[in-house]
Amino acid sequence: MTELDAFREEKDDFFGGDSQSPLTRAQKKDFKGLNYFPENDDLRFEILVEEFSDKEEFDMQTSTGGVQHYEKYGKFSFPVEGTSVELTIYRNEHGYFLPFVDSLAGSETYPAGRYLEPEPLPGGRFFIDFNLAYNPYCAYNEMWSCPITPMENRLKVPIRAGEKLFHE
Question: If residue 12 lies in a helix (H) or strand (E), which one and from where to where?
Fold first, then answer.
């Protein structure tokens, strides 16, 4: 079992049995595990992030009509199936945040996007592993409020890594 397999098994156990799970009691009753893409080493990066000199304050809309406050931290480029794409990393008091929507949104991935928490490394680099991309809690239960992915982080390429669309 790989480290990623163990992580996913632990997450499935949490979703299916923990009182803090985003699933309702009815959803937990028939829960058999989340859907994932196979592990994809091509979507795991230690990458240099171009930090913005002017940390623009940014209010990210949420699924329930509110806002969450972030600053635009920096951007990075990376290859996906031969195409170079770019994403923006945001930061607030809780840390770094990378919401994104890919071209599979609505068919294989959650329409409003998936999330990552990039891990800072020395020298302006970050560890970004799309195999850890996850659906926001509002993908499972509309009682949750989730940030909506900004337009600048909507990709025209598929990210075949991480969680897939949730099916009850």
Answer: helix 3-17
The per-residue pLDDT for range 35-48, each reduced to its tens digit, is 999 999 999 999 99
Specify the pLDDT at position 129: 98
What are the φ and ψ backbone dihedral angles of 53, each rounded to 5 degrees?
-70, -35
Burial class (CB in 10 A: 0-12, 13-18, 19+), 41: exposed
pLDDT of residue 167: 77
Sign of CA pseudo-dihedral 92, 97, 100, 106: negative
Task: Of 106, 125, 122, give the one whose Cα is nearest residue 114.
Answer: 106
Domain boundaries, the chain: 40-153
pLDDT at 168: 58
User: What DSSP string describes 43-87?
Assistant: GEEEEE-EE-SS--EEEEEBTTS-EEEEEEEEEEEEEETTEEEEE
Per-residue pLDDT, averaged over 80-87, amounts to 96
Residue 96 CA: distances (Å) to CA of 62, 88, 141, 147? 17, 11, 24, 14
The DSSP element (H or E) to which 30 belongs, if any, is: none
Give pTM, 2 decimals.
0.93
